[in-house]
Amino acid sequence: MPTSERTIGRLSLYRRLLKQAVADGQENVYSHELGARAGATACQVRRDLMGLGCAGSPSRGYKVRALLERIDLFLDAPDVEPVAIVGVGNLGRAILSFFQRRRPKLQITAAFDSDPWKVDRVVQGVRCHALADIERVVREQEITLAVLTVPAGAAQEVVDTLVAAGIKGILNFAPAPLRVPLGVFVEDMDLAMSLEKVAYFARGRGGAPRKGGK
Question: Could you give all domains of the chain from N- to C-terminal order, each with its CATH number?
Answer without folding.
Answer: 5-73 (1.10.10.10), 81-193 (3.40.50.720)
